[in-house]
Specification:
This protein is mostly helical. The chain folds into 2 domains: about 200 residues, Tetratricopeptide repeat domain (Serine Threonine Protein Phosphatase 5, Tetratricopeptide repeat, Alpha Horseshoe); about 130 residues, no CATH class. About 75% of the residues lie in helices and about 0% in strands. The chain is globular, with a radius of gyration of 25 Å.
Amino acid sequence: MVLIVMILMLASCNGQKQQEKARALYEEGVQLREEQHSEEAAECFLKALELLDDVRANNDSPLQAQINDNLGALYLKHGLFEGAFGAHNEALQCFKQLGDSTGMMNAYRNCGRAMRSQEQYAQAKQYYDSAFSIATLINDNAMVSDLYLEMGRDYYMEIGDFAKGIECVNKALDGELSNDDIDIAHMTLGILYYYSNNFDEAKKHLKEALRSERPGLKMSVYQTLYAIAYYEGDYKSAVYYQQLFSDNMLESEHQHSSETMQRLKSEYELKAQKNAMESLHRNHSLKLYLIIALSVIVFLVILLIIRRKINENKIKALEKELEMRNKIMLSNKVFVTAKNLGEHLTSDTLGFVLDDSDWDDFISLTDMIFNDFSKRLLATYPKLGKWDVRICCLCKNGFSNQVISILLDTQTDSFYKRKTRIRQQKMGLPDDKRTFEEIINAI
């Protein structure tokens, strides 16, 4: 009996030590994540989870939930959406067992973000609604406002329900937003009103957003103000907003260049250690599928189409400004990455990274050139998803099947099949004899 008691005591001590090691690894991972060392942070989180599994540390569920929550955020940042959802869902189950309402609320929100990133909009809405219900129940007014803003900006704008998006963001403004989020809310309302063709309201909110000192936010504001001025034929204002866009772009690049280099370095290390991380994580369902690149910034070329008949003096003045505009537009990563891939297939050109903001900028610029192409496309074929729209915009800009398949990280024959599915299932044109490109160019 004494021997059994001693064995149990030793096992208990060993379990406690492993839990302490797991907590130390978790804290180290948090620190590494803040320093943007993604690979090392993920390794710490996975080792910590493995230790907790080994000792069956059910009494340490809060730690397990926190580790999964951080791991999910790390995956989401690097575009590993399935892994992000799995980790956040694990955290959600732990918070449910603990009866932690705040933890459940945040986990529901994070699950919604992961689903939205995979274009699973119906599931994303369910998770967002669950987070909203808990925030309302526990009177977390700040979270309620944040959720209204996030749903208006990242959900309703994504699915094209601009009226509902405007309603949500207005409710967020009536709530408890931080000063930075107030500026973001005004910017979001300006863009939503622009998409709704309510230019007066759009300009009012965009100018409110200019109180922000953040160059990146100002770039979005000036880009939208430029589009409105150009649409209204106010070319003098359009050139003015274009110059302000350029000034803020340079400032933003200067402020964030060191951060970008550090992030790319971390992502490269994360890719290099993929096999080791999968081995550490073999007792879990998560796997890392990395879409990482080595390039930093590429440039985009666009041509402005002058649709209004103006006098000769105005044309000459506008042509002088077109040169400067083209240089600015060369900063879009999607266009110039595709252009480089079409000209030279090398290890350098194949090492690229594109995030949602690059794609959003690319679609916005395509709309400016081709008279709101994406909006007219979605109005004609509302079943198209986010990636479908991106493919259509790439085709509209004249990129080859080979280039687009590389951007999508897929084989060329798989891309042909995907175009066929889009045309037959989402566009509803199974009997149309035109090519996919002919259909796109007719819009």
